[in-house]
Amino acid sequence: MIDLKLLQKDFQTISNKLSRKGVDAELLENLKIKNEELKVAKALYETLQAAQNSMSKDFGIYKKEGKDTTELKAKVDENKIKISEALETQRIKQEALESLAMSIPNIPDDDVPEGKDENDNVEIKKVLTPREFSFTPKEHWELAEQNGWIDFERGVKLATSRFSVSFGMGAKLERALINFMLNFNSKRGFDEVSVPSIVNRAALEGTGQLPKFEDDLYKLQDQELFLIPTAEVPVTNLYQDEILAANQLPIKMTAYTSCFRKEAGAAGRDTRGMIRQHQFHKVELVSITKPQQSDEIFDEMVQTASDLLSALELPHRLVRLCGGDLGFGAAKTIDLEVWLPGQNTYREISSVSNTREFQARRAKIRFKDGDKNSFVHTLNGSSLAVGRTLVAIMENFQNEDGSITIPKVLTPYLS
RNA sequence: GGAUAGAUGGGUGAGCGGCUGAAACCACAUCCCUGCUAAGGAUGCGUAUGGGUAACUGUACCGAGGGUUCAAAUCCCUCUCUGUCCA
After folding, report:
1. CA–CA separation, A278 and A262 (whole Å)
2. A348 assigned to active site
């Protein structure tokens, strides 16, 4: 959630910044007005309530002293009607404000490039050089089927389209990758956690998936519970509504979970293969930091994901997302894109974001900042998407006969 | 699924419907005293939000949501969660 005080104080700046994320100034104007209206309504209610409280106190004193309370009672009853009216207006204003405020995305950092969509993202650097093939490299689905690693039809049989099944070495490799990634991240100081795959509405509101993106989520039929679209949700919300001690920070965590996404609006995109599935494995990094250390930790997370790809000998590049491509909660994001020779292109395999205090404000995650409480910064990033890593391994390590060489670092995990 | 007990501030744990935003203890912070593997004393110490330069002060919050009342942590209802017992 954006800082309403800041909006009130420096409307133009906020509005300019958010316009880069495609937020209409009118919407913000509206938010500002709603905020002011709420303040007025609250002030009225509180004044009336103060009067009521003081009269009630008098009432007690009167009774004790045996004085007549008829007149006071009349006054108090009259005031009571005004209070209930004032309270109702305040409640309506509050709801209006909240529902609007919760749907406004985070303010992008100043160094976020201008741009409309992914075509305006800015490459930072390439890491490792893609190998030269003496033959035409195949795409991963062909290799996956040829090697008997992945069965797309049977996934559909069990569930629906965009589900797949891994067999044999395909399944083993997935498991090896998960373990390798978790160990790698642990060595970099990210503590391993294992969390629920189902979360409640408050958790999703905390990280920003709700209320705006309910269509992307799988929801349980009988309860207000959802399948997680990313481990970011349960892991970040671990500290929801808590005030952390300054010396607890930074908290750096890594978690493996399955992720579930409806991929609404992705019709026709990546329909073939396992680039875009409804269920996929992912190892995530989440950090909770003091504001002044979040940039440093952000870089550390990007570096960790990049080093992980390098350890797997996968060529990749770092891309700074432009304003228009930035996610709802992100102030800045760097994507890691892995080279896929079969597709002859770089594809997203990790996305590292600093949400600054956007999620912390929603999830009420604070820390003791000297003698006052401040919001923490929260960051998240994949390290890495397992399915896409498997895809990258297949395409980069393929041989002319369609067989696949296993990256050296994974062999200890496969014995 | 049924029965029953419970849910209070960082922790333990009091709390007659009004003087309770909440005793006490622990923890924590600052200071004092003293000095030896310690102890003692003083003060402060919940969260959010409004007003005020500040001192200070208004409002709300004792699992959540409703209700009764001039007045609710305290009474009533519903729900959630936890413990125990039964199936």
Report:
1. 6
2. yes
DSSP conformation letters of A109-155: PTTSPP-SSGGG-EEEEEESPPPPPSS-PPPHHHHHHHTT-EEHHHH
What is the predicted ipTM?
0.85
CATH architecture type of domain A4-101 = Orthogonal Bundle (1.10)
User: Which residues have a Cβ under 8 Å from the Cβ of A126 and sit 6 or more positions away?
Assistant: A315, A316, A317
Which nucleotides of chain B are near protein (any atom < 7 Å from a CB)? 10, 18-19, 47-50, 58-60, 70-71
A276 counts as catalytic? yes
Known catalytic residue: A351? yes
In sequence order, what are the residues at sequence separation of 6 or more whose Cβ sits closer than 8 angstroms to the Cβ of residue A151?
Answer: A145, A164, A165, A166, A167
Closest by CA to A115, choosing from A321, A324, A320, is A324
Tokens for A402, please give them: 């369609």
CATH number of A118-414: 3.20.20.110, 3.90.230.10, 1.10.10.10, 3.30.930.10?
Answer: 3.30.930.10
Convert the pLDDT of each residue in A292-321 to its tens digit: 999 999 999 999 999 999 999 999 999 999
CATH 3.30.930.10, chain A: domain bounds: 118-414
Please report, as a single letter, which amino acid is at residue A368.
K
Per-residue pLDDT band for A193 (boundaries 50, 70, 90) equals very high
Q: What number is the average pLDDT over the span A152-167?
A: 94
